Queue: 4 jobs
Job 1
Amino acid sequence: MALLYYALHLPVIPAWLLLILAPGAPLTRAYVHSGVVPVVLGCVYGVLLFCGAVLGFSADGAGMGSLAGVTALFSHPVGVLTGWAHFIVFDLFVGAWIARDAAKLGMGHAASVPILILTLVFGPLGLLAHILRRVAGGHGWRIA
């Protein structure tokens, strides 16, 4: 299981490095701003979810209907890996959106780097920081 944990990062780490260090590069557009990483990790997530929910590789009482069920879900290695795959793919997806949105609004990449790092480490806080930066810069709340 530890090997799978590290393997989950193989498509994600290069994507974050490209997003932060080479935001306008063709490789960044082709890799980070495409569906490549979400598709790969989405498949892994689906297999892990199937193993936990259908094949029974989960703790007794695991589920999403109560706090106790979620706690049990994350008390099993398959549940933790499923959750981790979910977190890292969504954090990267949000980071890529932040980079595109900031570029579209002319916010400058250097000012986006700390927010991207915040998103990498603490996903929702990075998104919050970007939205607050949008509002402070007169770009409003609408993020569509």
Job 2
Amino acid sequence: MILGPTSGDLDDDAVAAAYPWPAEGPWVRAMMVTTLDGAAAGPDGTSDSISSSVDKAVFDAVRRFADAVVVGAGTIRAEGYGAMRAKPADVARRTAAGQAAAPVVVVVSGSLDLPWDSELFTASTERPIVVAGAGATAAARAAAAAHCDLVVAPDERVGPGFVVDTLVARGLRRIVCEGGPSLLERFVADGRLDEADITVSPAFAGLTERPGSARDVVRHFELAHVIHAEGFLMNRYLAPGSGR
């Protein structure tokens, strides 16, 4: 850590402690990696080619004691998400704190076109939740219900507020949003993001501008700490007034 409440080398437990969860109430944090030119993925279409082992160590640390990991359907397909499990050493701590044995993966999907035979749905410790838009067909809903806990939003486009309220009602208040960028933008636009943990990769990958992605209002976050390793900068930002 080169900026923040401490300095010097951090082991895995110290990294997890550098991303504390509040004692009560919902808390939504985003985890993203970006290149120097603002790309969220490399030429292979995934974040793997712009990430590193040190970035993934922070990524894993933030996930360790989360209740839910929210991700868009497009990111699930592009990144090839595997099963959501917790390290054996963390299971006892999680259950003692009243948490499920592992984080619950929560997929936001409009069409319900998802890889149902992937390990994400067949081998995760906790049954995945899928939040679908109201436009999903009855046939798609019936097929999805065999593989997940299906929740249908009242609108065709799933709103971040509906996602957060649904999870909190289930006792899942520690929420990590892993994107992609479009889903993250919606959380920011709706004011439902408390923390942004953004890794800056020391690379240029070619920024592809997405039409209509510019925001009407610029929302500023406050820098809380910076962790450096192998040229990567892992930055923690907090929404103003969050008190964390």
Job 3
Amino acid sequence: MKKKEKKGGISNDWLNTYSDMVTLLLCFFVLLYSISSVDSAKWKEIVKSFNPTDKEVSQIVENSEGSLGNYDLEGGFNGDGEDTMFNDEFDELYYKLSKYVEMNGLDSDVEISKGEGFTFITFRNNIFFDGNSYVLKQEGKDVLDQLCYAIEDVSDSVKEIQILGHTSQASPTEPNEVVSDRFLSSNRATEVLVYIQKKNIIGPEKLVSTGFGQFRPISSFATKESRAKNRRVEILITKNDSIVRSLDNYYNEIYGVEANETQTENSQDTQ
């Protein structure tokens, strides 16, 4: 006679469900850990892959080390820094250049400002050129190399790059000789433009150079220190969709004074 099978035994089927749940939890925490530090460049590519028609990707999150790029140049854009949220691609230019200036102790020689649709850079005369010379110094070339690396990444969003050359009145009371003054400022601006153009980072039609001589001062000619502020090269980089503005508007926003007002004051001092 066949024996009846015993019923009521304990089943181990629940172990399969439990192990699946633990595995899923493990994968979830590994995923959280993997995205806890995001490389901004890689994250941007991921976002762009989902929005191939979108030219601008907003609010790109940097990694915890404040990575501002993948450049391996010494003193370049691969250092530590504060977390930054980029509003768009063009904003990266300002943050990268600011970080480079800070890391290399160039705060007294290079001033970088940012406004609506533009980045404005002021280079003190001694960083690019020796007195009465328009031959680029190696120090100036190194700085321009970093500028070019930063511009290359955002070149599609750049409308125009203006290089503005300025001299200063050598004497508090006597204006400079016109020909040498104008040529010196123009040649300096042109030298900077040519150096940038040779890097092939942006269309040459977007590059413009202008020499103002001593006639766009941002300080008075009264003292040696104030005259030194006027010896400078400026680079104005505008965004594609930015509103066309006059140079006086930029000067008023950057320096806090109208260039025409400073020029009038200097003319009165000379008289």
Job 4
Amino acid sequence: MPNVYTRTGDAGTTGLFGGSRVPKQDVGVEAYGTVDEANAAIGEAKALATDSSVKATLHGIQQRLFVLAAELASDAKGRAILDNTISATDIADLESLIDMCLEVTGPQRNFVVPGRDVPSAALHRARTVTRRAERRVLTMAETREVRPEVVKYLNRLSDTLYALARLTEHQHDLVVIEGIVRAAVTRALGGTPGVAAYDLATLKRMADAAEARALELGVPIVFVGVDAGGNLLLLHRMADSLLGSIDIAVNKAYTAAAFKLPTAALHDASAPSGELHGIQNSNAGRVVVFGGGLPVFTDGRIAGGIGVSGGTVAEDVAIVTHALSIAQEASQP
């Protein structure tokens, strides 16, 4: 094995692949050295990642960065014999990865402050180092030949790391939510809202109960029930209810099922000082953080969610809670 030290750089120069030597402060050396920094930062993010697929993705990116750095560290003779260099396919792969992340997290609507959790913070750091590497390569390109694919790859890579950081934050939020679900349900409803069966007949019974209570309050409402996957099972709309109440009721039911707790329980957590600040902007804006949606459990497992919209928040909560209580009473032996 060759020695780590070679003494060939003691005079302040370094060798390029191809045989020529340049000063260590050369713009090209600065460029591929910063790409090496980015690779190390991505390695740190990989080590901290808790998702095996994210680890594998970052490892693959590191392999391509070695190839990219080798191209930057080559003179004309060296570049002529390089193979498997960065191509349009690599760029397209990153774009596909970004799109897949956005399918989960939805579009960004607020500024992201790094540091929600350690794995995502490391990805954000890697993103900023990659941005710096891109700037150094652009400086190099002012006086040297740099293929456009190299610059484009670094540009997409920083976007990819940003998308992965948001995905990691989203996964962190779900873990936090799971940890507070039972306590939140108990605090809001005095126990886990369970029914013996969650089917269309049960939902119709709840819809009838919701309408009866809404008539007592003089509030035209929309009642919605979804399954555990957030898929619509029943939509009951009273005459004169607002069209806007349809989407809100659907989203309340979806949120209750997706997070397994009353929508009202997300209010404080989603505030600027809360653990889940901005959660209402995830899932393409479908998350509701005010009252009117309840999860429904059968045998301790999430079966779906119900949502009511049409009145004030207090009225919606009273109506949806009454509807669920009727189903619970019918489940008693």
